[in-house]
Amino acid sequence: MGKQWSNEQAWKWYDKTPWLVGCNFLPSTAINDVEMWQGESFDEPTIARELGWAAAIGFNSIRVFLQYVVWEADPAGFMQRFERVLEIADANGMTVMPVLFDDCLFSGKQPRVGKQDDPAVGVHNSGWVPSPGKAIGEDPAKRPLLEQYITDMISRFADDPRVVVWDLYNEPGAAGEQFDSRSLLTATFDWAQAVRPSQPLTVGAFKGPGVDDVEQIQAKDECSRIMLTRSDVVSFHCYMPFKEALACVLSFKTLGRPMICTEWMARATMESLFQTHLPMWKEHRVGCYNWGLVAGRTQTFLPWNNPTRTMEPDAWHHDVLRKDGTPYDPAEIEALHKATGR
After folding, report:
1. What span, in angstroms and rounded, lies between the C-alpha atoms of 281 and 294?
2. Cα separation, 24 vs 88, whole angstroms
3. What pLDDT score was predicted for residue 210?
4. What is the tens place of the pLDDT at every residue in 57-66?
5. Could you tell me the CA-to-CA distances from 220 to 67, 204, 213 in Å, in that order?
6. Fewest CB within a 10 Å sphere: which of 34, 38, 293, 297?
7. What is the DSSP secondary structure assignment for residue 210, as one 8-state letter?
């Protein structure tokens, strides 16, 4: 059985890794990770085009959500398509952080293969589904297959330099996912550490206002305690304004491990901006992945709550580029180039 890296091992890895600056990526033609990965809707031309744009604006890494139900339906095809994304990212000078499980339930629906629903007009992330979802996550009979999924994915790419970090589970226990994720979260760490890849393992903390007090987070939330005490490198989500984001960084710094903010950037509603936050992430050596690249079927350029259902808000919430690759805000691209030197 493998084990968690020591702080020294984590820093040895981090010190030889370029500062990670990237985005959470789905092609603009995919409404969710089912549509991204299943064979009938896997859109390689769009993926290649948009990852080229990502590299051109200064990104050196992408975070991508995998989907268990697609793997279960077609393991070989899923592996081939993931390999193709690794090839495309690598050709553009970018590494990949795969996300293996996810509790987010924006759509209120469980994952299924096949044709996905079209986006709801004016709704942020109206088609997003979890992985593996409540029914599968709660079913003891499915646990061996879940273990096989984790083991097969990590084992195949355990020494692949194109995979930079394994993000095992996005937001376990997230609002709306009505099952106790602690058992699956613990098991996932066990399975991944049994493989013990050459890349670090992490699960990102996301609880609490600004996620800015590590001790409070661990005391109040068991999933957060598990993820923060078992991850090789500390990761977290922080969509907060500059002052709160800095407090978050300083709090997580007390854990003594390298840090990666795996979700950030929310313009009008949270004042989480490239121009203000990128220099801070860089100063404190925090890797950072903003949410979204090209505005598309996820509609994450819309605010989380969009009561007017307008399709063109006064200010975009997430995403960086329009469908033709032009920037929403050229000043953001200038900030990226300045921070990354790319």
Report:
1. 22
2. 16
3. 47
4. 999 999 999 9
5. 29, 16, 11
6. 297
7. G
